[in-house]
Design brief:
mainly alpha
């Protein structure tokens, strides 16, 4: 039994192509670009992290409880 074949329909060439994108196809790459740009620009303001005394006290208390 032969398979049915589909014939191609020819559209007249108009010389232009219409492409429609969804809103997120433009917004998400633009948002990602802006976020990466802000990360690159903001690196000059980086400072060394300081330890909080409360964290060191908490770790010391946990170590004291663990050793008995």
């Amino acid at each position: 039994m032969p398979a049915p074949t589909h014939t191609r329909t020819t559209h007249p060439a108009t010389g232009s192509v219409e492409v429609r994108l969804r809103w997120w196809a433009i917004a998400l790459p633009a948002l990602a670009f802006a976020a990466l740009l802000l990360l690159i620009v903001g690196t000059g303001e980086a400072h060394a992290a300081t330890t909080d005394p409360a964290i060191s006290r908490l770790l010391a208390r946990i170590a004291a409880l663990a050793t008995g």
